[in-house]
Design brief:
Bound molecules: zinc ion
Helix content: 25-40%
Distance between the termini: 41 Å
Number of helices: 12
Shape: globular
């Protein structure tokens, strides 16, 4: 049993480093981790050196300390960003250090924390880290997000299990949706997934739809305009040097950017949204000329409103992503309470920052040029799920032809 787990953990570390980061000889990857993830982090460090890394620089966070600080530190702290942390991200950017990070913190870590502190921290850390994260979203260096269970997260995903039992169940679910069986062949299986995603992206790119119209029985009726020269992408990305990497494992989505000023109608969430350690449930957003003009949530409305109030750009959509209902993640029937997984269970949008690569040449445009091309700009990027089993999406081409993209929750091609 222990041996089987070790084999899977090793297969997972290798998948993250070999397919996710695709570490090249001489590079110095950084690993953003958590003290509780040390076993996986060490396997990843070893895998990086096996690939010829020059060095590996880890950074360990600690959920307990994060929460204590949010609850008990001097409120002024949240409006500051320490210079040594700014120096660190600047150094990593200079090195073009590939970045591996893990999601898995307690989804309710910041429950009960004054939302003003969370907002202040987000505002203070935004501008100093902006160059680094701009380079990341523009794929200037390789990056990948993996996952590691914590008891708090596992107990949310498996409410009838406790402690270690819940963690074991969540590990099994993660391995299963990452197509890890212990036979060491996960890397090859992911090559096939990437091929299917590439075939569909090519079809979508060929159509160059003017708009997509979303409808389902929840009441969603939304028209989303797409920018000229938009690019549907998914699976792998490339750095300017041509190094292929996979930003998210697992990934099932094909995504592009909407025109920030071209979204109209109402969209209902299909799944709850875990945000800043809180849950937002049963919500809809109303759009006019791209802007969110009304918000309603059955639970967590204040948290959702504050996220949308982060900046002006957070009032507009920055991502439109297509995920078939018939995906390994949806088929597990598990709500992971974690975006990395749940966003791959369902078609989704994000309000906030668009990926510049979603418009041809977008990475090399100035901020003003990106906006003119239709790409939204914001300090935040929040995914929310809208795909249901009866979702239909119809694309309209620039010459007025209507082509089904989704029927009954799945790709029409
Ligand atoms: Zn997405
Ligand atoms: Zn997203």
């Amino acid at each position: 049993m222990v041996q089987e787990f070790e084999a899977k953990l090793n297969e997972y570390a290798r998948l993250l480093v070999e397919v996710g980061l695709n570490v090249q000889p001489g590079q110095t990857p950084s690993i953003e981790s958590n003290v509780e993830f040390a076993a996986l982090t060490r396997q990843c460090v070893a895998a990086c050196f096996d690939r010829g890394a020059r060095n590996v620089v880890p950074y360990y966070g600690d959920d307990f300390i994060t929460r204590e600080s949010f609850l008990r530190a001097d409120p002024a702290v949240f409006g500051e960003y320490p210079s040594y942390m700014k120096a660190r991200v600047d150094w990593l950017l200079e090195q073009k250090s590939p970045r591996l990070s893990f999601t898995g913190s307690n989804p309710e870590l910041l429950k009960g924390v004054d939302p003003a502190r969370i907002q202040a921290r987000r505002k203070a850390s935004g501008p100093p880290t902006r160059p680094y994260f701009d380079a990341l979203t523009a794929n200037k260096f390789q990056w990948c997000v993996g996952a590691h269970p914590t008891p708090a997260w596992a107990e949310k995903a498996f409410p009838d299990k406790k402690g270690e039992e819940a963690v074991d169940a969540l590990w099994e679910a993660i391995f299963s949706v990452c197509r890890i069986t212990g036979d060491g062949k996960a890397v090859e299986r992911w090559r096939q997934v990437v091929d299917t995603i590439a075939r569909r992206a090519e079809i979508l790119n060929g159509h160059q739809f003017k708009t997509l119209r979303y409808a389902n029985s929840l009441g969603t009726d939304l028209t989303v305009a797409l920018p000229d020269n938009h690019v549907w992408a998914g699976g792998c990305d490339h750095t300017p040097e041509g190094v292929e990497f996979m930003p998210n494992i697992p990934t099932e989505e094909i995504f592009t950017a909407p025109r920030w000023d071209g979204v109209d109608g109402r969209v209902y969430a299909a799944l709850p949204l875990a945000m800043d350690g809180n849950l937002v449930k049963d919500f809809y957003l109303d759009f006019k000329g791209g802007r969110i003009v009304d918000v309603h949530a059955g639970q967590g409305e204040e948290i959702l409103r504050r996220a949308i109030d982060t900046d002006e750009g957070a009032h507009y959509l920055g991502e439109v992503a297509l995920v078939p209902c018939d995906s390994p993640i949806r088929n597990t029937g598990i709500l992971f309470f974690n975006t990395l997984f749940d966003e791959n269970a369902s078609c989704h949008f994000a309000f906030g920052e668009a990926y510049p690569s979603c418009v041809k040449g977008g990475e090399d445009m100035s901020e003003a040029e990106q906006k003119a091309a239709g790409l939204n700009r914001s300090m935040t990027h929040v995914d929310f799920m809208v795909g249901t089993e009866d979702l239909s999406i119809v694309g309209t081409t620039h010459d007025g032809r209507e082509i089904p993209v989704f029927t009954n929750g799945n790709f029409a091609f």
